[in-house]
Amino acid sequence: MDYRTLLNYIHTLTQRKEKLNTRLFIFTFFLVVASILWYLNKLTYEYTTEITFPLRIENMPAGKVLVGEPPKEIALQVRAFGYTLLRYRLGASLIPMVIDLEQAPMMPVSGSDSKFFLLTSTQRAAIINQLAGELQLGSIATDSLHFEFTSLVQKKVKVVPTLNYSIERQRMLSGPISVKPDSIIISGPRSIIDTIQEVVTKSIKLDRISSIYSGMVALMELNQIGFSHRRVNLTIPVERFTEANFSKAIEVRNLPDTLRLILLPRTVNIRCNVLLSSYKGLPESGVVEPYVDFNELQPGVTNRLRIYTTSRPYVVRVIDLEPKYADYIIERI
Fold first, then answer.
1. For residue range 155-207, what is the model confidence (pLDDT) as tens digits?
2. Residues 159 and 119: beta-carbon distance below 8 Å
3. How far is CA 19 from each of CA 13, 22, 24, 295, rounded to the nearest angstrom?
4. What is the C-alpha to C-alpha distance for residues 261 and 332, in angstroms, rounded to an integer?
5. Is 178 within 8 Å of 235 (Cβ atoms)?
6. DSSP 247-262
7. Residue 16: count of CB within 10 angstroms of its CB
8. For residue 46, what pLDDT band results from cuts at 50, 70 and 90?
9. What is the dihedral of CA 101, 102, 107, 109, to 10 degrees?
10. Given a cut of 60, is residue 244 above it in pLDDT?
11. What phi and psi values does residue 111 have, to the nearest 5 degrees?
């Protein structure tokens, strides 16, 4: 076979392949179109299929609380046109079916006083009323729903704030941090209630508080537990302070009536931070009292006693004492 004959042969094969590809494309195109038309025609027919709907349980029986998680789904046999079912299958948002347990005729499980079941057939009318008009209920595939209840109990518990805060310079707390109410009534299953000693607020962060803070804060929710209050008022009292220096006589505590203790020195210099509102008349006010304790006496070991102070909380914060120890002489009366 010469060169020219070979070229003609290759050209003929190429033309035949192109015709075959064109015919195959045309066939595939019409096959797809026919399939789509056939499928669209089928969607105009009515079908029955099973769809699982989300389930919402409402209104527990009076004086009862549910143990564990309630049923979340209910399966229904529904009838509708194909295009309607296709829309649901492709992810249409399903409205939850609602069952009101306060109105539902629940039956006890044999041998148990806490477990009950509900025949879903008793809820047929309620379910039909909740279905979209384009869906017709055939049957309820989920034949029963099971629940476990326990008696509702109540308990009074303390509210504890959860705080992360800082105070502006030259300011200090002028009183205890408080919440109002400081305790609430919680209710729920006894098995859970008995383990709860307090409830806490949601965490709150406050930076550089410069004056009294007051605001509402929510409580942290607890699963299956009801609260008499969902929010409490939080108060953080903050006030400006100043530094004070003064001298005061040292008191002797726990001294027997038959003895007299002479201290050297008899006074101590006190340096402290004090609220501005309490600064006036500070040495005589009694908010800071220096003292030594006779019970700490160790004759033959040391002839000194450590000086302590008592101070009124949230009014004075003692920074330093000078001296920190006092010598003593014991005399009998």
1. 999 999 999 999 999 999 999 999 999 999 998 888 889 999 999 999 999 99
2. no
3. 10, 5, 9, 117
4. 9
5. yes
6. EEEPEEES--TTEEEE
7. 10
8. confident
9. 60
10. yes
11. 85, 5
Please give the single-letter amino acid code of residue 76. Answer: L
Assigned token pair, 162: 């959860």
Q: What is the pLDDT of residue 267?
A: 95
Query: Whose structure tokens read 């019409």?
Result: 30
* Cα–Cα dist 243/179, whole Å: 30
Q: How confident is the model at residue 231 (pLDDT cuts 50, 70, 90)?
A: very high
Residues 143, 123 contacting (CB under 8 angstroms):
no
> Which residues neighbour 165 within 8 Å (Cβ) at sequence distance 6 or greater?
204, 205, 206, 207, 209, 236
Separation between Cα atoms, residue 275 and residue 14, nearest integer Å: 102
- CB 330: neighbour CB atoms within 10 A? 13
Peptide bond into 323 cis (omega under 30): yes
For residue 275 the two structure tokens come to: 């609220």
* Rounded Cα–Cα distance for residues 68 and 234 (Å): 33
Could you tell me which residues are beta bridge partners of residue 218? 231
DSSP labels, 15-71: HHHHHHHHHHHHHHHHHHHHHHHHHHHHTTSEEEEEEEEEEEEE-PPTTEEE-SPPP
**What are the pLDDT digits (tens) for 250-297?**
999 999 999 999 999 999 999 999 999 888 888 888 889 999 999 999
Query: Does the N-terminal peptide bond of residue 181 adopt cis geometry, omega within 30 degrees of 0?
Result: yes
